[in-house]
Amino acid sequence: MKNIILIFVGALVTAVAVVVIVLRGALAGGAQAATGGEAPGTLWAFTPDSLEGKPAPLSQWKGQVALVVNTASKCGLTPQYKGLEALYVEMKDRGFVILGFPSNDFMGQEPGTPEQIRSFCTVNYQVSFPLFAKVKVKGDGKDGLYSWLTGGGLEEPTWNFTKYLVGRDGRVIARFGPRTTPEDPELRAAIDKALGSGN
């Protein structure tokens, strides 16, 4: 009987250790849940690394409307960078930010180093909105931020330049597909509504 109890206790300890490791893995690599008191159900609770590899708490944009976009430098949709930058410049003074997350998930279309990505975006599109470290946005090992973005039932990115609109309260409002351009009237109307309503 004593041996059975010891085996049971050992198995329980092992199970707890596995759960801890899995949770750590879910939060690792790019976006991580912060411990700064933000509600875990908001965008502001994450601290991804910047493209330069330094922690960049999303809480610094708390209260703004955010468009979260997975980006790539060698995609047919890469010219959307131009429209995204124009949208950002036009609306940033109203409390709007674009958060770009390079990803190599789709046919290896973002193979570059951080330095190469920064140079490409600056030289070709004069990107001034925040860019973050490369992350995995779909499937096994999906970054914690993207698990949160899709946790309410929204579809995960199906290609580069999928867009998630987040309100001033840090909660997801809508998902827009990769081929929805930054100039799309429906996307712009949704951003305007979020900016105007204070949601």
Topology (SSEs and partners):
Blueprint: H1 2-27, E1 65-71, H2 80-91, E2 96-102, H3 114-125, H4 144-149, E3 163-166, E4 172-176, H5 185-197
Parallel strand pairs: 1-2
Antiparallel strand pairs: 1-3, 3-4
Describe the structure.
- This protein has 199 residues and is α+β, with helices and mostly antiparallel strands.
- It has a single domain, classed as Glutaredoxin (3-Layer(aba) Sandwich).
- It has a 4-stranded mixed sheet with strand order 2-1-3-4, covered by helices on one side.
- The longest helix has 26 residues.
- The radius of gyration is 19 Å and the shape is globular.
- The termini are far apart.
- 34% of the residues are buried.
- About 16% of the residues have low confidence.
Q: Which secondary-structure class do the elements indicate?
A: alpha+beta
CATH architecture: 3-Layer(aba) Sandwich
Low-confidence stretches: 4-9, 12-37
Strand content: 5-15%
List keywords for this structure.
single chain; 199 residues; Glutaredoxin; 4-stranded mixed beta sheet; 5 helices; 12% strand
Give a short synopsis of this structure:
With 199 residues, the chain is an alpha+beta fold. The chain has one domain: Glutaredoxin, CATH 3.40.30. It has helices at 2-27, 80-91, 114-125, 144-149, 185-197, and strands at residues 65-71, 96-102, 163-166, 172-176.
